[in-house]
Amino acid sequence: MSNQNILIVEDEGKIAQVLRDYLEKAGFRVAWLDRGDKVLPLVKQDSPDLILLDLMLPGKDGLELCREIRKFSQVPIIMLTARVEELERVLGLELGADDYICKPFSPREVVARIKSVLRRLAAPPLQEKLVAGPLSLDEQRHQVLIAGRELSLTPSEFGILKVLLAHPHRVFSRGELSAQVQGYNFEGYDRTIDTHVKNLRKKIDAILPGQEIIKTVYGIGYKLNKV
Ligand code: CA
Asked: Is the pTM above the cut of 0.90?
C-alpha cells in the first residue's frame, strides 16, 4: 500500500500535522492544502489516490469541492466534519463522498479508514456481469445499466448494489453492508448506509419509477426485491 498519495485539505494546522505524521508513518506520501480554493488545480495536476477533505474551509467549502471534484474524478474522498449535526446535513446531500469522519477523531482510525477505502477499490473486479431483472452491473467497466440506461453511481452506491446483486436472495443488515462496502463496521455508521441506499433508490426511481428494487426488511436491513 506504500507510496500512495494522500491529499489532506484542512485549515487547522495542528490537525493536518498530526494526520500527516500518522499517514507518513503508515507509508503514504502526503500533500497538504489549507485552503479550499487551491484544491481543484492540484487534484487535476497530481491525481492523488485519496482526499481527506475538511468541510469548513477558507476559500471554498468541502461540500462545493466534493461536488466539483466528482465532475471530473472518481478519486476516493473522505469528508471530515466537526460536529454530528454537520454530519447529518452532509449525509442528506448527495455529494459522492466515500466516507465521513467526525471530529474529534483518532488519527489511527483515520489511517484505518483510508486503508480500508483503498483496499476496497483495489480488489480485483468480477469477471462476470451481475444481472437481475432490468439491472445489470459490469464491474470491469464500472457500469450499471437499468432498462438499458446507464446509472451514474458513487463508489459506495456501486458497492452496495454489487453486494445485493451478487446475493439476490439474502437480506443484509446495515452493518454487513457497511463491512462489505466500506471494509469495516463501526457502530454508528448505519446512517451512512441508509443515506447511500436512499440516494441509490432515487437514481433507480428516476429511470424506472415505482419498482422498489431495493427492499427494506423491517428491523433487519436491505435485500434485492424480486425483479
Ligand atoms: Ca476547518
From this structure: no
